[in-house]
Amino acid sequence: MRVTVQADLLERLIARWDSSEMCNRRAVLARSLQEKRANHGLGPIPESRIEGVVDFFEEVGTYLTKKLIDQELTWEMFFDCATVYWIVCGKEFAAFVRTDEDRTTYANFEHMIMKMEKMYYQKTSAVKGRPIYTENDIDEFLIAEQQRGPG
């Protein structure tokens, strides 16, 4: 029964991630991130563009932390997207919104990334400490994400 519940929850997360609403959010965010990268990191990105995607991965991370979804399947389904979004905006955004009173904002997303990176190094022959993605990999990812939404 637990496996069925985990599979159902993961299936719903995947459907939401691939929904037209989320694809539009992802496209808008990716466009903003690519523009910021082209400007050497200058210029703010409105929180409203970041929150939808980062909040989604915080939710996935929460389910993973509570063992409501399978770690291996979560890695298979979300490793690339979650890791790139953490690299290009999640880590910085989490630090920005955390306060002295609440240091836990986006902690589940961060914890999920740490688990996924550990799995990555266990599954591959990659050298720990080297970047998982090159700048070119990130640019290609952001271009692909932009193509998911409206022009």
Strand tally:
0
Helical residue percent band: over 70%
User: What is the count of DSSP helices, taking H or I runs of 4+ residues?
Assistant: 6
Stretches where pLDDT is under 50 for at least 5 consecutive residues are none
- Summed up, the domain count is 1
Structural class: mainly alpha
Please give the radius of gyration in angstroms. Answer: 15 Å
Question: How do the SSEs run, as a string of H and E?
Answer: HHHHHH
Mean residue pLDDT? 88
User: How far apart are the first and last residues' alpha carbons, in Å?
Assistant: 43 Å
Main pleated sheet: none
Describe the 3D structure:
- The protein has one domain (2-146).
- The longest helix is centred in the middle third of the chain and has 27 residues, at 71-97.
- It is globular.
- The mean pLDDT is 88.
- With 151 residues, it is mainly α.
- The chain is built from six helices and no strands.
Could you outline the blueprint of secondary structure elements for this entry?
Blueprint: H1 2-17, H2 20-38, H3 47-65, H4 71-97, H5 107-123, H6 135-146
Helix pairs in contact: 2-3, 2-6, 3-4, 3-5, 4-5
